[in-house]
Design goal:
Blueprint: E1 2-7, H1 12-24, E2 28-31, H2 43-55, E3 61-65, H3 69-75, E4 83-85, H4 89-97, E5 103-107, H5 113-125, H6 132-138
Parallel strand pairs: 1-2, 1-3, 3-5, 4-5
Helix pairs in contact: 2-3, 4-5
The chain binds D-ribose.
Length: 142
């Protein structure tokens, strides 16, 4: 299964580690950048990832910046994107179970690599619950 990944400079190191982890888990990471620790503007990588996920190839993604907020704010401008910020296993689980996030956002400067992998694993391993949560998601678009 393909997973799009992107980060700015603040998330670059974590992105490199996460790509290795995803490969180890049998996923096929698709790297949308950034490709070095040089400073960049997070919308420059967030918009291409969101556009690809909106088209369904790849169907899901993981984005990282310092706090996660710049990525989440940018990604959620796209109508078909539900980008959810998570920083531990439980929130990683709930952002799928309740919000059906199609992009997971990690706060690279405020999470250890181990916590980041555990959060991503929880999000990937959890099923959306549907039901009342689907009704709520249906009310999100403007
Ligand atoms: C970069 O310094 C930082 O502003 C960015 O990674 C992110 O935290 C923005 O929301």
């Amino acid at each position: 299964m393909k997973i799009g990944v992107c980060s700015d400079h603040a998330g670059f190191e974590l992105k490199c580690r996460l790509i290795g982890h995803l490969r180890d888990m049998g996923y096929e990471p698709v790297d949308f950048g950034t490709f070095s620790p040089e400073s960049i503007d997070y919308p420059d990588v967030a918009h291409p990832l969101a556009a690809a996920v909106e088209k369904g190839d790849p169907a899901i993604g993981i984005a990282m910046c310092g706090t996660g907020n710049g990525m989440a704010i940018t990604l959620n401008k796209h109508q078909k994107i539900r980008a959810g910020l998570a920083w531990d296993r439980k929130i990683g689980e709930l952002v799928k179970r309740h919000n059906n996030a199609n992009i997971l956002v990690l706060p690279a400067r405020f999470i250890s690599p181990e916590e980041a992998m555990a959060t991503a694993d929880a999000w990937l391993d959890t099923e959306f619950e549907g039901g009342r949560h689907q009704r709520r998601i249906d009310k999100i678009p403007l």
